[in-house]
Amino acid sequence: MRIIDRYICLEILSAAFLGLVICTFVFFVPQLVQMMGLVVRQTGAPWEVVRLFASAFPGVLSFSLPISVLVGVLIGLGRMSADSELIAMNALGMGWRRLLVPISAFAIMACGATLAMTLWLGPVSIHTMRGIEEHMRASEASSEVQPRVFDERYPNLVLYVQDVSAAATQWRGVFLAEIGADDVSHLTLADKAIVIADRAQGKLELHLRDGSVHDYSLQDPNHYGLSAFAQRDLSVAVHEGQEGEVLELTDAERSMASLRQQHGPNEREAQVEFQRRLAFPGACLAFAFIALPVGSQPRRGGRTSGFLTAVAIVCGYYLVFTVGAGFAREGKLPAWAGIWAANIAISAIGLALLPRIERMHDEGRLSHALARWTDWHHWKIARHARLEPASAEKKIEATSTVAEKGGRSAFDVTRKKRTGGGFPQFLDFYLLRNFLFYFALLLVGFVLLFEVFTFFDLLNDIARHRTGLMDIVNYFRYLCCYLFYQLAPLACLVAILVTLGVMAKNNELVAFKAAGVSLYRIALPLLMIGIIFAVVLVILDDTYLPYANQRQNELRNIIKGRPAQTYFRPGRQWIFGNTGNDPADGNAHGNPLAAKIYNYRFFDPDRQLFGDLSVYELDPRTFSLRRRVYAARAHWEPLQNAWILESGWVRDFQDGRVSAYFPFPVYELPELDEPPAYFHREVRQAFQMNWWQLRNYIVTLRQAGFDVAALSVQLQKKISFPLIAPIIIMLAIPFSILVGTRGALGGVVVGVGLGVVYWAVSALFEAMGAVGQLPALMAAWSPDVIFLFLGLYFFLKMPT
Q1: Per the domain annotation, does 520 fall within a domain?
Q2: Residues 606-665: pLDDT tens digits?
Q3: Which domain-ending residue is among 314, 339, 363?
Q4: I need a labelling partner for 97 at 20 to 30 A (CA). Which of 20, 103, 387, 562 fits?
């Protein structure tokens, strides 16, 4: 390989590495947040955790490698074109065909790596990751049980535990309800239980003590089975399926041979997956083919215009790919034609643009626009430089007069005005203008990449459920608001690194320090803009963002084929009464109140009507059943302020036997005093509520006996997350000095690296808080505190 080939490959490789880091970060962060919830509960070998994270990368790299080829060729050739290196090569007789040698070699290597991911490593890693996740969930099922929470994760079972030991191996107050297919209700209660997790079979082995078993059938209400026990063993399956059952392979996990041989109703989906695994490696060649003529055109925007062009091409590619895949799944196009349509279109455009390489002196519209902006920027600086000496002379003359009259020296006053005093100054506007430009550019790029990945993730559902165009557009419009909130701190971090990195590369920081301007003074406007961003994010989260999140969640459910507003679930079947769910609850005489558990098959909040209502009254001290009430119907009577029960019965229990039985056609129980509004609850995510709504929601859920650990962490993060903006800016300022001569490229790489570290630390602490291993306050604020101390340490130690 010649020296020129190695030089071009190094230029492309450095930019491609930047694109690979950014795209991998974009695609990996959503999986990282999900996996952290499993990792914090893992008590097995660390090697299993390493395998879990390693198995996530092949599937991500199959997406990010083709995009990195596009980014590498566009930015690499764009930099060489901006520095007139391509023109010099053309003058020496090296035409565009000479560029094909290193670019083709690079694209073929990336194609081979992507092919290995899609054909071999990808399916194996997806199957491995799914198996590890299922095993970890099964092996850690006992530690996932939260006290005083109705747990419905188990097949056909509802589990409630009053108290859980620190090691999660001993429970006190066990309530286990099972509803069979024959409408037979099996209820098991026990005062204590010893829990052993069977990792091999995915079960929980319960050794129960001092309890009772209740059997009741709706077909025979007069018959009621009751048996007490001192000790009893019970197995609880964590997941549905037979013991030792092998996970069924999905299309993404199957080999190429099995996909090719698929026949029957799933044949079309199998063929689409088969062609997709070949089309993604081919995208490396297609992207290189179109990037060669586009990146070779002269432009003054350099890496900036290359980055914007890459984002536009990626969006267009996945748009065509989505439409083609939808047509292939519907049978309107053959599988190969629908999947390869995007590659063919990109290659055709590249072929049409190849003749333009010979006219390198002709700049495109984007280059002209960037050139006009750059010329205006330089004109403003030159104009200010022309005006500055005159104004400086006037200031010196004025201050000299003051000095003659006994005031401060003219030199002191002039030096103060030039270097330190007063805010804002021209330096502050110069810094903020550059920072806001890079911030907007990076934020738009990050948002577009996330939306492209989300669009690709939803394309199957869009095609399957024939989602309307306006629903798709509105979904991504509301999603933009959420992405702005989540990605603004990251854009701040990278923008600071790029802004100061470019200034360090151009020796502007050296000039400022030589003029007596400290780096602390330079950092002042950047820290202030970080505080402003934090305030904006808090206000956004308290006003418009909850509504936008509700709307995008509704539209996502439409795309997924689920009913809109599935977060509104008034028909929750298990809920505690408003008193008695805590052992400390008692009446005026100190006697503990009965804990009431409501179970119903149907609840109509508009008509204030229950269907198949059961009420269990438990003794909090022994966790034995005092009374059980059943009613086929129950409606609320506002005048009496009570529930009127119809067609049911009441059974009282004492000393392990039925002490009283009372059937009724119509009956009223005064202890059932919860109004209909108590059962009419919204089930929403934390990001769909502002701070006050979430706080009240947590209070009501905690009173009803539901787990609020995860929501409590989210409540704290509504304040802690926006405050990371000024903190991470403080950390980025000294790191931008370390970037040095690497300029914008080094700033983006370091910024994305710091962003990955922050997201990993934040996800880890959030997951620990969600399972109760850390208090909510500590889980939400620990990342801010850690990065604040790191920022202060590096900020105070940087050479000013």
Answers
A1: yes
A2: 788 888 888 999 887 778 888 999 998 999 988 888 899 999 999 999 887 888 998 999
A3: 363
A4: 20
